[in-house]
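Quarterly update, task 2.4: cytidine-5'-triphosphate-bound model.
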Amino acid sequence: MLNGKNVLLAVTGSIAAYKSALIVREFIKKGANVKVVMTNAACDFITPLTLSTLSKNPVFKDFVKDSEKGVWNNHVELGLWADLMIVAPATANSIAKLVSGHADSFLLATYLSARCPVFVAPAMDLDMFKHESTQENLSILTERKVSIIQPEYGELASGLEGEGRLAEPEQIVKAVRDYLLNIATLKDKRILITAGPTHESIDPVRFIGNHSSGKMGFALAKVAAERGASVQLIAGPVVLDTPSGVDRINVTSAKEMFEAVKETFANIDVVIMAAAVADYRVKSPALEKIKKNSSEMELLLEKNEDILLYLGNNKKHQLLIGFALETENEIKNAEKKLISKKLDAIVLNSLKNKGAGFATDTNQISILQKDNKMISFELKHKNDVATDVLDVIEKLL
Ligand code: CTP
């Protein structure tokens, strides 16, 4: 479950910070990529060098990396890199700041930027842990969907005995794995997702393409993998990082995409065709660069295979989900495609809606199902749109 996952360990200033070395090792052993962010106080208990050596990555502590050269650490990038963020050990002070939304350290700013599931493993003396303030803060974090990894009972650094010892590293890893297992609602499902545009060659340096960024398809791949599906992503020419746990095949043209889809289709449970496949290709692409010798030029185009239509005509057990990007008569056009391509559902987005469609980070969709049911959603970030689409797919499955 943790193989290939990006784990961000956030270490705050508790005596239990020494255990963070073991936590890093446990996650590395499970195949995770680990990065560490620390507060200044944490560095009094364990050195960044220890944690960077074990995690095989630089450790983050300050906003400014080199003030003379103006080089800084990007908390937003780090927050978005993380698939999981674990604050361990979490002091009473840090927990209070997580609740209040303080951003006076790099660690806290990264927490505010993270979109991933967050775990907090408190470590403090028993009375600090039992205190109403701490307990209320932990309840607020729980309400905000942060998972609390309860401390253990035992001897504490103060010499007192009680609840407040940081959970053992194996227990922390187990809590994270249990969480992932619990959300693995698509475990055992194989999902094929196409994303991005296709490029149809005119000559060795030019192509016919479209404005698709691939962001919607990649967001779907990310969320499907987070839910435990085995995801085969077939991506057109886009410069996007492959979400962790996703198997990616790169293609350029519609023809290549068609071949790649056909090769994997038989073993697949769900196909989501989010790619903006070119409907036509140049009949005879030039072998050498075309020179601008005449004032006009004509390109003869021939039709590409409609991949989704082929899948609709050849499907056995597979669930088929299409996308429709329309500029007019949206619902009618989407319905036509749903029927003609024998789809189970089609995701409709209209270029008339601001913030929807190509190249943006947001999208506004409606999902039409073959039983004529239609659900419309608000404008959302593409990751949240992906969640809505996969919720519908889970119901259809
Ligand atoms: N699609 C496909 N193969 C193509 C063209 C489109 O598999 N050659 C898929 C897209 O990935 C999308 C759905 O079909 O999921 C709808 O694509 P769209 O281009 O909007 O519809 P078309 O059927 O091509 O109709 P038109 O271009 O006339 O709107």
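Highlight for this quarter: The chain has a mean pLDDT of 95.
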